[in-house]
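Help!! Second protein's tokens look totally different from the first
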Amino acid sequence: MLPRNVKILDQVRAEALRRNIPAADVERWLELARPSALLTQGGDGPVVGAIRGPVMLPADAEDPTFPLIASIDCAALPADVTDLPLPADGHLLLFGWPEEHGYGQVMYVPAGVAVEEREEHPPGFSPDDEECAEVYAEIPQGDLHLTVDISLPYVKTIPGPPWSPPLPGDPPFEEMTEVWQEVLGDVPDGMSSYGWTTTPLLLGGYGTDCNGFNPAWLGANPSGRSGQDESDHGDWVLLAEFHGGRQGGASIHWVIQRADLEERRLDQASVLVYWNP
């Protein structure tokens, strides 16, 4: 595990023990930790991608249906910054639209493949449209800088069915969640230190919630039926999560089965959009 992540988990452990949370519970919860990458516009980390920008695809690739949200240079990512089977090189392209009923897609361009520039704005997403222009203005173009990060399950108590099944780490460690949030709040370049206007992008880990649910679980259970164990999401993982600067907050979650990611079947990804206008 990378040194920064070890340091953060040590801080979580120390604070939890200071609060007299049983050591066994602390260790059980910390065992769920996963490495992740926090990408933001600004910061001191290396540039590993960009928000929006030109859409560069091979000549035989279909035109994307949705606008480009971000492109990731896989070769610029440290190999152990996530525990996902990401490509070692090439570019990962994340498309989507941060609306309540928005969707999206994922495309991968291998290194060395000839590419050509495509239309930046797909049909139906013209910047001449007032509503579209408003969204584009809230997602400014710019480089994405890497911060090595660590992720634990997003634990949130919602009062009973039919609203939500248990979240990962059941029984929910509300006290541990408070510790986690407090420690992260003191990390100057962590997720909690950024406002929505900085367009943070997460790669790997658990991400945050999607309308009260674990996004990977929603990929495995698209109906979102209550009463199921939300810690059981099979092979589904969070590939990426984007937070745009929309009023009320908006998030796009790209989720995929680990085997599909490993075999580069990116067209099998599911895209979830949560917007709270």
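Here's the second one for comparison:
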Amino acid sequence: MSGYLRRAFSYRNMLWVRASRVVCARDVSSVQMCDSSRVFTIPAERNFFAESRRAYAKGRKSRDEGGVSTIEVPPNVGPTIKANAVSQMEAAMAALSAELSKLRTGRASPGMLDHIIVETSGLKMPLNRLAVVSVLDPKTLSVNPYDPETLKQLENAIVSSPLGLNPKSDGERLIAVIPPLTKEHMQAMTKLVAKSCEDARQSIRRARQKAMDAIKKLYSSLPKDDIKRLEKEVDDLTKKFIKTAEDVCKAKEKEVSQG
């Protein structure tokens, strides 16, 4: 009896192995390695690479959606930040020069009359739009009007200004002699120069801060070495412009002190 049972089980196992081999042979979408106890399935080559590409794309998309990917930064962002800073610092220097030109010293300067407003024919206009101002000598200015009819209005405007000038007319132009500065006037001018210099420094530093704020936004997009280099370049620009402003103001103070 036991012998009969052993032969029956052996015959059943042989049939199961043959059936599994047929299944393996008929599966053309994949290659299978089979034995009597396990079945190993390896994807066909074409499907394997296709699935790999799709998995990679899916993973990349999930990383992008997760916020790991960085924002693309234009390659010229560094020069743009520096160019904006330079433009703002140059504007601060231009404003400083305009303010200093308004201050009267003991020397004649054509720009010292630019800020004077002249009223003519019911309109108020800067003097330099109504006349040409030139230097005759270190102590004398010449004011030549474009329209001779405005000569009297120009004279009144100059006399009314805080410059302390008393121009004389020769019929075609005004001649303004620059009087020597008093001690009180020198002190007042020196204070105005110092204030103008401080205003310029603050404007330059504000330009620096704007550039630094723009650089901070790039911390996650640029290498640290590039960030540090850009910050150093902005700092160097700031020091350069501040030194230039201070040198201009020192020259103006010297001019004031010489009367």
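Reply: Different proteins will give different token patterns, so don't panic. The first strand starts at residue 30 and ends at 34.
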